[in-house]
Amino acid sequence: MDMGMDHSHGGDSGASGAACKISMLWNWTTVDACFLSEQWHIRSVGAYVGSVISLFFVVILLEAFRRLGREYDRKIVREHNARYAAGTAAGEDGSLSKFADGSISTPPPFRPSVAQQAIRSLFYFVQFSAGYILMLLAMYFNGGIILAIFFGSFVGFFLSSWDTVGGQLTPETRGQTCC
User: What is the DSSP string of 30-58?
Assistant: First the structure.
């Protein structure tokens, strides 16, 4: 005996009565597509376009946030090297120390403090969480959503990855890594 429960994929979709259209095959569904939950129910072409454009910018923001995490790592390493250099006779580039006998010493390996590691973990948490949600959205195999993710990642990486390739700072590039 059925107790009046709705067994459709979309459930009760509100006033329009249209159920969510969910496909795990490549599709271009616009109206009545649902993403992640019934609350993200696309009821018009304009809402679909808004979702696609919003996702495009979310991916760009994710890439910018990744850049911010790299900049933070560089900042705390620079501070560590500066503290070490202040305790010894600083070399020309500030990262190596020359002693009276002419020998050169490099700073000891850097290990973040608990507070610094908590901030680094927050950067990772946001990146991992956003990446996971974007992956779940891509699993709907909706062409517009996937293209927004792909093009957003291209534009985001293009805009935010102008920092030094390979992560090595040289005396010539020190201070020139941002923007």
Answer: -TTBEESEEEEE--SHHHHHHHHHHHHHH
Q: What is the pTM of this model?
A: 0.74
Q: Phi/psi of residue 123, each to 5°?
A: -55, -45
CB 49 within 8 A of CB 142: no
Q: Are strands 97-98 and 104-105 parallel, antiparallel or unpaired?
A: antiparallel
Residue 144's alpha-carbon distances to 60, 67, 134, 138, 167, in angstroms, are: 16, 26, 13, 10, 34
18-30 residue pLDDT tens: 888 888 899 999 9
37-41 and 97-98 as β-strands: parallel, antiparallel, unpaired? Answer: unpaired
Q: What is the pLDDT of residue 23?
A: 84
**Phi, psi values for residue 90, rounded to 5°:** -70, 145
Cα(159)–Cα(179) distance, integer angstroms: 9
Using DSSP's 3-state secondary structure scheme, residue 87 falls into helix
Longest dimension (CA), the chain: 92
* Angle between the N-to-C axes of helices 143-160 and 45-87, in degrees from 0 to 180, rounded to the nearest 10: 30
